[in-house]
Amino acid sequence: xxxxxxxxxxxQLVVICSKKETYxxxxxxxxxxxxxxxxxxxxxxxxxxxxxMEPEFSKKYAHHKFDVDIDASxxxxxxxxxxxHTHPVWSGDRVHEFxxxxxxxxxxxxHKMGGGIGFTVEHTRKSSEEELQKLLVSRxxxxxxxxxxxxxxxxxxxxxxxxxxxxLKVLHDTSKxxxxxxxxxxxxxxxxxxxxxxxxxxxxxxxxQIPALLALKKEGKISxxxxxxxxxxxxxxxxxxxxxxxxxxxxxxxxxFHGDELNPMGSGKFGAELEATAISHLxxxxxxxxACMAKKPIxxxxxxxxxxxxxxxxPPARKLINGNVPVALGSDFNPNAHCMSMPQVMNLACIxxxxxxxxxxxxxxxxxxASLEISATHGSIExxxxxxxxxxxxxxxxxxIYEMVDPxxxxxxGVACLPRRAxxxxxxxxxxxxxSRGEAARRxxxxxxx
Length: 450
Ligand code: NIG
Ligand code: FE
Fold this sequence. Notes:
Blueprint: E1 5-16, E2 33-42, E3 48-53, H1 56-60, E4 68-71, E5 76-79, E6 81-83, H2 95-102, H3 107-112, H4 117-126, H5 129-145, E7 148-154, H6 161-177, E8 181-189, H7 198-218, E9 224-231, H8 238-250, E10 254-259, H9 267-274, E11 278-281, H10 287-295, E12 299-302, H11 304-310, H12 317-322, E13 327-329, H13 342-353, H14 357-364, H15 366-371, E14 389-392, H16 399-402, H17 413-416, H18 420-425, H19 438-442
Parallel strand pairs: 1-4, 1-5, 6-7, 7-8, 8-9, 9-10, 10-11, 11-12, 12-13
Antiparallel strand pairs: 1-2, 2-3, 5-14
Helix pairs in contact: 5-6, 6-7, 7-8, 9-10, 13-14
Bound molecules: N-(iminomethyl)-L-glutamic acid and fe (iii) ion.
N-(iminomethyl)-L-glutamic acid binds next to helix 4.
């Protein structure tokens, strides 16, 4: 026998779970499963086929010649990170706003002055697909270096049909050439376009943008899985948000929206009524919202970089975890919060939101996968799941969080993401027929393409 990949004898093979759990809540979020002296085999299509302990495991494979054979002695191995919330397609950085924020301007002060999202929209509208793709690829490359293997990626800097579809197309095309796995989200309701109103913008989304999205999706040119709205006072409020999200649901998209970030909007209850999959931010979530989210459950995607950069009170992670809401983490990479590193996000989650390191790792892997409805195939090291790993340059996985801004990730792409990625790296064409990787991630929420 030959082919595939083996990672041998990791000091800690951090599998996360072993019973195909699709998310973890409450006290279980603080429990991770670790195989010491662990080894894992991935087949040539990128799927984990065997997990075991040394020295027995290597004896079993003594006559197998692997394409990629990695000795992980003295190193820990964790699942590739799943960044549950990013805005990575845009041009025109906002470095000038950083000084304004340091001088005391709030997010909404800048937004109302036409800066913030409005500034990025102006630039992104003018950029070609090629320019946007180049920027996106360089950002995804940096994310991979920090161990991200799957990323949720939003549109939202067009606010009209042409640019929104352009952004989704860039994401779709890039997912075919980049080793990172992209789950894309349509965010036409990210802000009210200059000169319009929330009501008119919602009508434009429902009557023009979503029909255009469905047509392009049918043609195989874009692949959005989720719909998002910036549900916020002075942006899209209840009625318009509900209108957009309901139209998105009818279009077969999963509801995954920004809520309770700057003002309490009752997002938990609202999300439960609309049957949302996930809600991001939640700095201002209330007790009723927490109870509603736990019931369904709705995944809470927490973004500590936002609170850090805007000097806000961080979201109540402890209350959410104690209230049995599955908590996930995202970098919220965007021109406001310029962070691409999930280890940094986990560190901030521990320090600012009082999460444990185990909780942070589960939030950045299994529960992030749950927020994208891909935890049947992603988010833990289990037989049948995709073989995405991060190899840590230390025997204890916690060094990823402890070493702050420069985590000891062995920075080869082929090490951070194996082995489908290895196919790209080595210029080999891996079988295009395997259904369980990009396809699983992109599969329509309502089941089946529309
Ligand atoms: O999640 N709050 C809205 N959206 C983003 C920020 C986007 C931007 O400022 O460009 C967020 O923080
Ligand atoms: Fe965001």
